[in-house]
Amino acid sequence: MVRKVQECGGRAEIAVKADLHIHSYVSDGLPSPRDVVRYAAKVGLGAISITDHNTFLGSALALREASRVVVIPGAEFRTHYGDIVVLCESLPYRVQRESDSVKTISLASLVDLARRENCVLVAVHPYAKFRYGIGSLYRASFIDCVEVFNSSSDPLTNVYTILATADKPCKTAGSDSHLLEAVGSAYTLIDSVSLRREDLLESLRKARATPSYSLAKSLVDLVVLTEKRLLHSLRLRLYLQNGMWGRVRRYNEILESLWRARKSSKL
Fold first, then answer.
1. pLDDT digits 0-9 by tens, 96-153
2. Torsion region of 9: left, alpha or beta (phi above 0 gives left; psi -120 to 50 gives alpha)
3. By C-alpha distance, which of 213, 104, 76 is closest to 153?
4. Tens digit of each residue's pLDDT (9 = 90 or more) over 65-84
5. Domain ranges, ordered by start, for the chain
6. Which CATH number fits domain 2-266: 1.10.10.10, 3.20.20.140, 2.40.240.20, 3.40.1440.60?
7. What are phi and psi of 83, to 5 degrees?
């Protein structure tokens, strides 16, 4: 959903509903990137980011389907300190990995990526136990925003996070959806001068964003989707046993070859 809210410096400003934390079957989600884009448009979102684990492939596939919904390239990277979502204006050419056998990227490499590609870093589920939150590190200057509400976290964790992160100017809410039905269950309302990705990200940097969520609805969803989540967890366990991370590395290799070809064609 996109609506005009006011005039800003002679330009019309719009409010954009954005779910910036979504997973697809490229990593540990169930829906395809195409289905996510179509469902996002159906539920009235104006922008999304498919943030699969340690890869931009989900976003790359979603960009092919983008029409009524703005797709912001993103990925959720695991650092030694915890999980951080990176949101970029365009697909980065390359993500430096510490080694092909390690599932994490160094925090320094991620910060360097953000600076080089003009990306935004979001500390997601910072206080969620057993989910690799970065805790109080969200206060660091290189972290642009903190996710104060995560639909996949339990209500108590969300309440604690909301209270504990009051000092961070830019706050977001995301579904962290792994099921199609959860897309848009929490979102961020971004005040922007346009629907261009660079303007949306600049609004995040300037903390012109408001998290939108419902604690009551999240509790209901937690109950209603429990069976599906349990089945998904079982499928995911089997998927991990069959070498998900090896597939992610191969996805990254394919992406890097495409990026190199695109870069060389511009020379």
1. 444 444 578 899 999 999 999 999 999 999 999 888 999 999 999 999 999 999 998 9
2. left
3. 213
4. 878 899 999 999 999 999 99
5. 2-266
6. 3.20.20.140
7. -85, 135
